[in-house]
Structures are given as C-alpha cells and as structure tokens.
Amino acid sequence: MKKFAFLPVSIAGGFIAGLIGKKIFEQIWGVIDDQEPPEPKHRDISYGKLIAAMALEGAIFRIIRALFDHEARRVFARATGEWPGEEEPEPE
C-alpha cells in the first residue's frame, strides 16, 4: 500500500526532471551550437545534428530522472520505513 503512495511522487518527479533536464540541455546545446537545438519538426536540418541533439537530450533527461527518482525513494523509505521498489537488481 505504501508503494502506491509513492506513485504521485514518481509522477511529479518525472515532470520536474523533464523541466530541469530541458534547461540543462539548452545550456549545453548553447555551448555546442549557436543555433537552437534541432527538432523533428524543422524542415532543413541534418540527420546527424538531429540525432546528436536527441541523444544528448535523452541522456540528460534519463540521468536527471534517475537521480531524482532514487533520492525520492530514499526520502520515502526514511519517512515510511519501506523502500518503494526492489532492494537490488535481480541476478542474471
């Protein structure tokens, strides 16, 4: 039941991570290129530049999301005494 109580925290965390990740990506992209980051909706862009931008943006989002999610789980566990997830990875 306590794991269900963690669900809103997880959803909010995804939203916050998205906002933070986008800001970080924009700052990093500004160092890489003086133009705005390419998006699929842009007509005249190279595939290489689009792939690089999407890969960088995706990596940044995943890192920010994972850090937020893990820390939120640690805080939740300290507050409730129950870890909302698996204790460790399953062996192969």
Silhouette: elongated
Number of helices: 2
Radius of gyration: 17 Å
Oligomer: single chain
Straight-line distance between termini:
29 Å
Write a structural description:
The protein has two helices and no strands. It is mainly alpha-helical and 92 residues long. It has a domain of 39 residues. The longest helix is centred in the last third of the chain and has 34 residues. The protein is elongated.
Topology:
Elements: H1 2-32, H2 47-80
Helix pairs in contact: 1-2
Protein traits:
92 residues, mainly alpha, single chain
Summary of the model, kept short:
This protein is mainly alpha-helical.
